[in-house]
Every structure is written in structure tokens, then in C-alpha cells.
Request: fold
Amino acid sequence: MSEALRMEDVHKSFGKLEVLRGIDLALEEHEVVCLIGASGSGKSTLLRCVNLLEPIDSGRIVVGGDEVTDRAVDVNRVRREIGIVFQAFNLFPHMTVLQNVTLGPRKARGRSKAEAVAEGDRLLTRFGLLDKRDEYPDRLSGGQQQRVAIVRALAMQPRLLLLDEVTSALDPELVAEVLDVIRELASGGMTMLIATHEMGFARDVARRVCFLHEGRILEEGPPDEIFSAPREERTQQFLQRIVAAGRM
Amino acid sequence: MVVEAVVLVTALLLAVLRSLPGPVFFPIRALTVVYVDFFRGVPTILVILMLGQGIPALQLSWLPTDQIFWASVALVLVYTAYVSEVYRAGIESVHPSQEAAARSLGLTRAQALRHVVVPQAVRRVIPPLLNDFIGLQKDTALVSVLGIVEVLRQTQIDQAATFNGTYYLVAATLFVAITIPLARFTDWLVARDRRRQQAGRLA
Reply:
């Protein structure tokens, strides 16, 4: 089993605020890892650092054997290999669904239009979105928009997929359709690093769960261990609050 | 009008240059700021006089001496400054998450601007853009100071010959006849865009 991602002692500050205080994390290929933790614990920042949307202050990030934090590295080449799906979808509102999906393959990978459209149609079909291909994003429900965003990321055929609280902006009844897509990807062997507040989902999709607290991974392990018998007091407190909020 | 087409392109270029990030591009950004400050600060009529009378007076054989040409250049210079600020406001109004999404697909910064940021920015600034074009349309009257016979000049000539004040009314009607269709065309553009992107939402 080869390594998909390794982070070594990654630090990141915004001004005086130290958001990541030494993150060490490794993912193997086909592995699904969930990041849990309170808002502000650094989950999103961690993901944005992996595909270099945020430059890190110190440490190393290695993706598929290539050190991406090397200054000489071509960031655009790195990002082509890493997909990210955002909490707020971030679809391009002036483009149709199909244009959203084919933009990356055509412009960043240099695929022909016909090739990109064929692949886009195939993916949209697979996720039940083919009838929406010529719609603009604003005409779709939140769940459909987020599924399109996932398809857009997949169209680049990434080696690693980062998911940043992809269901947090959705109405409760739309959460399931998006989680189902992610489950399908997981069973298809996609390597994923997932920041989420959906504990039930984390429990059944993740091979490993990492609890982030104040910019550090305080505890990690198989989901059964983390959710049933957390060792750290902070983890226990966090999970108690989640239970109290009726989210688990 | 040729001037408007040229302004559309030069102003966008200027706005993009001004939005270049990083210390490397500081000189370019500084130049665009100086340019905009200067041409917005100097009265249009003064720029027209400087170029329209000043440059032909230099008697440089390789420069054109046509006053209409120089009056047009003056209008381009002034309106490029105004319009580039409109574009810049548009570019800055596109949420950074849009660029992040484009860059996350591996698009270069230039590609992200070209395919994601600028198309959205331009759609948003169509109404203020039209505002400036109406201003430009009306400012063509200023070139009369060079002795070029445009609508206003012709009106003054006719009015002086006949002492008939209604010529001014005719001139005003001419200007309005050009600007009103322009305004309705913009409204139509904006409405079409809105229909395309949001129709399903209203249902």
C-alpha cells in the first residue's frame, strides 16, 4: 500500500492567530480519514494547506511521493492532482453544470472539448445529474449543487479528494444525497480526507478519525475507538456536546 | 462608436494590471494608479485641448495632425481611467472563493481571471458601464472647443444664423435619441442574464 499524503509538523498562522500548531498526518492510498473538531479547530485550514490554497509557514506536505511544499514545485500541477470540495459549493454561477465540470479538464489538462464533454456526461450520468447538465447552478437545490461540485472535482481525476464540511450548508433533508455520493466514492477506493460535523457518517465511512483541537491532532484512531472510548478529556467533552446537540 | 470599443478593452487591461498581486508587480500597479489619478483629476476639456491643439502644434511629421483623431485619443485616455475603476470594483466584488475554486482545479491565475472572475465581474458592472458611456456620448460635445463641427457646434451655428432657440431642443433630442436605446439595451442584457441564471429559483 503506497502513501497518498503525508504532513510533517505543519504550522500555519493568520497574523498572530496560530491556526495549525504542528500537524502530523499520513494517508495511504484508498484510505478515508475524517477530521472532526469544533469550529475554529483548524480543519478547513488544514485542507486548504494540502492543495496549497494557503501557503504554510513551516513543515512539509508530501502528496504521492512529491513534496508539494517545495518552493520550486508547480502549484498548478499539484492542484490538478488534488480535488477539493467546499462547504459553500463555489460553483461558477455564470456557467452551466456541464461547463462547470469541463472547465478544469479543458483548460488545466488541455483536453479537447469533445473528450471533456464525454467524460463530463459520463460522470453526471453516474451521479444522476445528466438531466441538469445545461442548467445554471442557481436553478439547482443545494444538494444537487454540492453533487455537481463533487463531479467537478472528480472530472480532474484527482489522486486525492479533500472534502471541507460539504454538508454544513445544506438543509437537513438534502444531506443524505450528498453523503451517499461520498460513500459510493469511498467504496470505489477514492482516497479522501474529510472534514465533517456528521459523526454518524464519519463513523461508518472513515477508516480513521482524527480529533483536532486548537491546531493539533489531539487524538486519532479507528472510529469505534474514538466515538465509543475516547481517551482524551477534550475529545470526550467535544463528543458530549455533539450528543447533547442531538447530532449523534 | 470606436472610442467606446477601445475604452472597453484598454480599461479592462488596466483594471487587471492593477489587480496583480505581490511585490513584483508593485511598479505596474503604481503606474496604473498614477494614470487613473491623473486622467480622472484633469478636466476632460483640458485633455482635449492639450492633445487636439498641443500635439499638431509640435509639428512632428510622423504624428497625425487630424484633430478628430486627437480628440478621440483624449476621450479614450480620460474614459479608460473612469471605466477601469468600474471594472476594478467589479473584479473585487467577485468573492475570493470563486478564484479559489478555479485555482483548485489547477487553472493558472490568468486562466482563473479569464474564465471565472472577469466574466462575472463584467456582468455585474454593465449598468455602471453604461453610465460612463452615456457620459462619454455627451462629452463628445466637448470636442467642439477644437473647432470640430459636431452636433453642439452645428446647433450654435444654426441658432446664431436664425436666432431660433429650438435648435438646442433638436440637439438635445439627438443626444437622447442615442442614449435611451443604449439604456434599454443594457436593461435587456441584464434581464436576460438574470433570467438564464435564476429562473428556476422564482418558481
Observations:
- The longest helix of chain B spans residues 166-202.
- The mean pLDDT of chain B is 83.
